[in-house]
Amino acid sequence: MAHDRSRRRRDLGRPAPWNDARLRSLGLQAAVFILLLALAAYLAGNAAANLSRQGIATGFDFLGREASFAIATTLIRYSPADSYARALLVGLLNTLLVSALGIALATLLGLAVGLARLSRNWLLSRLALVYVELLRNTPLLLQIFLWWDLLRLAAPPPRTAWRPLPGVFVSVRGVYFPVPVYQPLYLWMGVALAGGVAAATGLRVWVRRARAGRPPLPAWIGFALVPLPPLAVFLAGGAPHLLDVPHVTRFDFSGGQSITPEFAALLAALVAYTAAFIGEIVRGGILAVSRGQSEAAAALGLTRGQALRLVVLPQAIRVIVPPLTSEYLNLAKNSSLAIAVGFPELFAVTDTIANQTGQSIETMTLVASAYLAISLTISLLMNLYNRSAALVER
Amino acid sequence: MGSGVQDRPMIELRHVYKWFGAQAVLSDVSLAVARGGRVVVCGPSGAGKSTMIRCINRLEDHQQGEIFVDGMELTADVKQIEAIRREVGMVFQQFNLFPHLTVLENLTLAPIRVRRMSRREAEDLAMLHLERVRIPEQAGKYPAQLSGGQQQRVAIARALCMKPQVMLFDEPTSALDPEMIKEVLDVMLELAQSGMTMICVTHEMGFAREMADMLVFMDRGEVIETAPPDLFFTAPRNERTRLFLGQILRR
Amino acid sequence: MSVGLTRALRWTRANLFNTPLNGTLTVVIAFLLLRFLSPMIDWAVLRASLSARDDRACAAVGGACWAFIRDWFRFLIFGRYPYAQQWRPAIVLVIFVALLLASFSRRLPARRLAPAWLGGLGAVALLMRGGVLGMPYVETGLWNGLPLTLILAAGGLGASFPLALLLALGRRSSLPALRVICTCYIEAARGIPFIAWLFLMLVLLPLFLPPGLVIAKLWRAEIAFALFIAAYLAEVVRGGLQAIPRGQYEAADALGLGYAQKTLRVILPQALALTIPAQVNTFIGAFKDTALISIIGLFDVLQDTNTALNDPAWRMAYVEGYLFTGVIYFAFCYSMSLYSRGLERHLGQGRR
Ligand SMILES: Nc1ncnc2c1ncn2[C@@H]1O[C@H](COP(=O)(O)OP(=O)(O)OP(=O)(O)O)[C@@H](O)[C@H]1O
Ligand SMILES: [Mg+2]
Q1: Which domains does chain B have, with CATH numbers?
Q2: Considering A345, A352, C114, C200, which has the largest number of Cβ atoms within 10 A of its Cβ?
Q3: Domain annotation covers residue C51
Q4: What pairing do the DSSP bridges indicate for beta strands B23-33 and B11-20?
């Protein structure tokens, strides 16, 4: 009897399809999907109509055609007779160059700014604060314009070039600086460096596996493995070195390496701007851990230096890395502002191609995908790092 | 048989199973609570007490077996779930008051939005229940400005404002300081005397003896023993119950 | 008097000369500051010229060419808006500053804020456009300068807000399809530089519209801007959503609130209040980003400056020009960041 009743109830309880939670969620998702598809179809239809009406060619065939424009800064061999695809590659390499240089320099400057902000010297910390606030609260583009005008309008001709450092010249023609002359030995030093990195990594893995539970080896052993082999090769090879230093001729420079005023302006602006943000990140990271932790370290009898090195910094790094990575990403993306000064990185090159071919959709899609690929790569690496850091924590 | 509304259990679990991954958190749990019944559930940590009562208002879903509330079965039916949640009030260990709303707004939110009461009506009701839990003067304050005991009493009043047929309590006093426990337990005792159907997870054994008409002991996802209080405390049948009681009463 | 002096001395010793290293540092910095500040003051104030005819006259004196600002002031602020009608954008500026002050001082309760901004923006559009109340019609191409910057920023942020909420909720939804779509959109927008996004949208938008429908460049830029900012704002809101304890969701469920009620009445109010500082920081970034529309040929304050500097008579006054514009941006951004920091401190105290 009771059993009977329950079966009846269950039948009553079977939901109508539109009330079933699972079906509902499926239906909702399907609806959203169909809506998006319909929207996409509608937009695509419009686009097709517009394109055929305006007689614009579509497709990526243009990539193989001759670019027929010159590019001032190239890392690889390039001439106007090369294809659009190669021009794009030149642009991409320039983007990577600016980003890499910018990231390295901005990190150094940012670290200095952050530490200066924390300095117990009032004058220094105030100065750093003013720097941070001024640069953070004005648009980067404005700063780029200012740097560019300074470099092309205020900078002197080569003969009276500014010399901020020995061997470095700043003039309207750009920035000239010394570079080491290539020696065959450098190749072997490179090999030795790779070997050192591999050895250090191997040691780290081995230490984790074999010495688990026992006190870890001091960190400097690992770090020393990296620079020592190339240094040894260098010394064993007789320490050959030659600097190619630029010098002034009548109207120009010869020797050394140079970067164009556009490149210099872009790089300077990116570095100065990003360093302000990095400085705040560094400061925040150190402040986030220092209070209770350095007190605890002091209570254990560590000195101030030991506390900073052994307790505060390792933890601060963990706080600093995620926002730092997103700052790096910002710098890479901001390098596209080069278009305002005409430095031929990826976006500026793309824009030129779009103007020449009229195929803005394809070119802009290409460039967007390229940046997306760079961003996703960096995020992926950051996520990997985060995961490993989280593992260490446990 | 005259199967009127009265003799049908208010809450009934039949052979309910639930797994988190491979771990069975509820296995073959059956339980019937009559209208006006007052059940206290106890058992060691991780026994599945919270999971069981959270299944009753579908904060968790069970994977096998049947759960009936007031004759309605809990299925994936959204309307049914809504109806059951209207009938079942719940009080949490951590109070879970809405910190951005005043006490009064906490109490009137659901009656206005779910029961479609007018604001006047809802506020009158809210004040009635605030008086019932003896803190009408706190109506305008925010939860953060109240003591833990007061917050838990507001949480009870908030659940009562939905005029539920059943109240579920999940360790309502274990986040409280000792001196506040009594004020909450007193409110719950009064509620029990008023004829409310209640299921309460608690380790307050004195309170359980006074309030419950049935005790349920759970361990490792199973209901080990079900008995009225005098039998449960004086002559537990199961070895594990005896062990548990020994530990908890010695404290 | 002497108490003050002692205190000043003690402060100096504690903050400037507390260690030998710090003492040296102080001396070096002070020396460098004097070395650079005095020529700068010389340039900016003592030798500055307010009446010169062109940049060569200033260069002869060796001081700042504030005369350039004086000469081009109206253009720098209002651009090519019809000269006789510039009282209209002037009122627009007053409206914006009033709205900002009202929002920051929290005179307006949060509930009134949205309607106030909506009404304000409506009035702004009406004033700029004209064509009613005897005000001549002015096309959007002539809406220039600071009003344009503010319209872009405020309009873009306003329009992005609802979209950001939907994206954030979608990304945290229990429905996998919704989650995937929202995540893809957010990551795509955040992975692409704004200038590339702007170009892409400017070419794509007209293409995707039904043939014959034309949208002014200003509005296309506004749409692109809103779509872009929404992704960043969505991440901020998502951070707030993640910070809401699970108990809040459960309590709302247990009370029988449906998804919409639970989200609107319980979860979102808390998540939004929690993230106001982060939202303001996003606003600051967005405000600075409006400068990029100068690259696509819209005349915001920065483009006005570039244009004015093309005047051969003032070509060398670029430092003065960019300083002036920089001060305008700084005023807005810095006041917003002060507000956000104040709020953060306030929130921090509330939680303790
Ligand atoms: N969301 C979840 N995911 C995985 N396992 C869970 C989850 N929630 C609970 N569990 C597991 O289910 C078991 C029962 O948990 P439950 O919270 O019901 O126990 P309890 O009896 O209420 O314990 P306590 O007295 O500590 O509150 C525990 O082993 C717990 O680890
Ligand atoms: Mg529990």
Answers
A1: 3-98+166-249 (3.40.50.300)
A2: A345
A3: no
A4: antiparallel
pLDDT computed for residue C325 by the predictor = 93
* Euclidean distance between CA atoms C202 and C204, whole angstroms: 6
Assess whether C36 and C104 both reside in one domain.
Answer: no
Q: How far is A333 from chain C (nearest CA, A)?
A: 5
The predicted pLDDT at position A227 comes to: 77
Minimum CA–CA partner of A341 in chain C: C295
Domain assignment of residue C96, yes or no: yes
From ligand 2's centre to the CA of B221, what distance in Å? 12
Q: Confirm or reject: Cβ of B45 under 6 Å from ligand 1.
A: yes
Query: Looking at beta carbons, which residues of chain A come within 8 Å of C339?
Result: none
The answer as to whether C300 is a domain residue is yes
Q: Are residues C196 and C118 both part of a single domain?
A: yes
Q: Hunting for tokens 């209209």 — which residue is that?
A: C88
Token digits of residue C218: 């200003």
Domain tally for chain C? 2
The reply to whether ligand 1 has any atom less than 6 angstroms from the CB of B241 is no
Map residue B222 onto helix, strand or coil. Answer: strand
Q: Are A240 and A185 in contact (CB under 8 A)?
A: yes
E-strand ranges in A221-281 read 243-244, 247-248, 253-254, 257-259
Ligand 1 centroid–CA C215 distance in Å is: 58
pTM, to two decimals: 0.85
Whether B78 sits inside 8 A of A12 (CB atoms) is no
CATH number of the domain at C98, please. Answer: 1.10.3720.10
Q: At residue B225, does pLDDT exceed 50? A: yes
pLDDT at C38: 86
Nearest CA to ligand 1 atom 4: B20
Pair C150, C209 in one domain:
yes
Question: Which residues constitute the domain of residue C17?
Answer: 1-46
CA nearest to C300, candidates C313, C282, C312, C288: C288
Query: What digits encode the pLDDT tens for the residues C22-62?
Result: 788 888 888 888 888 888 888 877 777 878 788 888 888 87
Q: Give whole-number Cα distances, B242 to A195, B48, B227, B248, B251, in Å.
A: 67, 19, 13, 10, 15
Query: B187: pLDDT confidence band, cut at 50, 70 and 90?
Result: very high
Residues C113 and C162 reside in one and the same domain: yes
The identity of residue A387, as a single letter, is R
Band (B6; pLDDT cuts 50, 70, 90): low
Based on the fold, state whether residues C312 and C281 are members of the same structural domain. Answer: yes
Contact B110 C269 (CB under 8 A): no
Q: Which residue, chain included where needed, has tokens 């200003």?
A: C218
- Between CA C37 and CA C49 the distance in angstroms is 19
Subunits in contact with chain B (3 or more CB pairs closer than 8 Å): A, C
Closest Cβ–Cβ partner in C209, C290, C334 for A137: C334
Is some CB atom of chain C closer than 8 A to the CB atom of B119? no
